[in-house]
Amino acid sequence: MSFKINLRNLLDVDIHFSKGYYSTDNILVSKGDRVHTMLIAIVGFFGFTYTIIGLIQAYHYQAILSFSCGIFALIAWLIHRKGYTLASKLVNFIQLIAFIALMFYFPSSPYGEHINDSVLAFYVPVLIGTLIAFQEKQRIYGRVLAVIILLLISLLVLTDIHYPEHEPVAVLNGANFDMLINIIGAAVATFAEVAYILALNDRLNNSLIKTNHELDNFIYIVSHDLRSPLLSTKGLIDLAKMKIDDREQVLKYLGLAGKSINNLDQIIHEILTYSRNARTEIQEEEFELKDVVKEIFDGLRFSAGPGFSFQEEYSGETKIYADKNRLSTVLRNIISNSVKYKKKEIENPFVFLRFENNNHHCSFSITDNGEGIPLECQPRVFEMFYRGTSSATGTGLGLYICKEMLDKMDVLFAISSKPGEGTTFNIQLKKIATSLVKEKKAPALNPAKQSGSPTASLKLNEQLNSIQGLSSFNQAG
């Protein structure tokens, strides 16, 4: 199981893409580090494998060099584990360049001087690896090492220098296992690196397409959803000015203006939530789920009305280990949708949250008996700014933000709905999440940095809060 997880993580360029797809530093550097780790594993494996082969076939110098190569790969891995990534890469690639050259020089074979010339095949993945592993500020090291490799391999091939340990005493018959192992090893490493390049390129292309699509949608909502409440508020304030002597009419217009401002504030809040999710890392902690659910239920009781029922059921440990802020936002959005789209003609509207923790996974099921989602709308409910009908309230960002957050948390989720009967949203955390997991303490982040939101949006939000305060003050007066 561990091998499958590591292999999936190696080939999945989205793994640990924690700073958001806007950060080229995150994806290029982290994936370069993964290529380096992969090369260390391959070098270590073939180093120790060649040691055994060298001892069996009496390749004396090669056995020593192969064993040293494996040891240096282990040292590079230990340095990498300590967090000194650049030092680890330099140790690994410099020793690779040196040992490959020495293995070419010391064939140490009774079958002739050229028996192990195929070791030069390893320069191909090493050359590719230097260009991938060193990214951003480290890029200069990769270019320098690549030039050194090209010069050295050219020198070795042109001079064709070897140290004959002894005169050939036998003729090689059958397969050349040295060449076979060298070529297979070089091919495996090269294939993995090229696969990484293709996957990375595909990921960045998809990210660019997604970003452009979201930018188009954002321009639409700025020009329509943000502008409409502002124009409505401006018109209502102008009407209030015209009726300044009629207190009742003024309060009516100010009340309507307050609703428009609340709608605008909700849109901006959701945009900031989306931006914060894209730009901040996962911050896991241990917390009591019941407290989070109670806070969400209490916050929605007033808007739900007296006849709406909030139900909950728990099975297993309710202290879980996850990203509290993101999970809370997801649950709040889903439950608020159940309240928003309740069926008014029934007597017992409800939302039912069921949680199960069996120490292998945590699962949530949020079910309601509301309006449900039309069949033709269900495939698109997670799209940015999508609203099923023109009469639908909200910004169309709620479920999109839920999807982005759950994807970022690497969580499984599914939605099922029957129009007129209700909707069920299922969430499953794929890892163990109990109170037995030790709490990780993350360093405090600058709130302004953590949100990752534009300054203009923050200022606009502050102005809206100020206007809301004045509106409430006037109505109270």
Please tell me about this protein's structure.
This protein folds into 2 domains: 2-211, no CATH class; 281-444, Histidine kinase-like ATPase, C-terminal domain (Heat Shock Protein 90, 2-Layer Sandwich). It has a 5-stranded mixed β-sheet, with helices on one face. Strands 1-3 form a two-stranded antiparallel ribbon. Helix 7 packs antiparallel against helix 8 and helix 8 packs parallel to helix 11 (398-408). It is of the alpha+beta class and 477 residues long. It is elongated, with a radius of gyration of 31 Å. Helices cover 60% and strands 10% of the residues. The protein contains 13 helices and 7 strands. The termini are far apart.
Which secondary structure elements does this structure contain, and how are they paired or packed?
Elements: H1 2-11, H2 24-56, H3 60-81, H4 85-105, H5 123-133, H6 139-159, H7 177-242, H8 247-279, E1 284-288, H9 289-304, E2 309-315, E3 319-323, H10 324-340, E4 350-357, E5 362-368, H11 398-408, E6 412-418, E7 422-429, H12 447-451, H13 455-476
Parallel strand pairs: 2-4
Antiparallel strand pairs: 1-3, 4-5, 5-7, 6-7
Helix pairs in contact: 2-3, 2-4, 2-5, 2-7, 3-4, 4-5, 4-6, 5-6, 5-7, 7-8, 8-11, 8-13, 9-10, 10-11
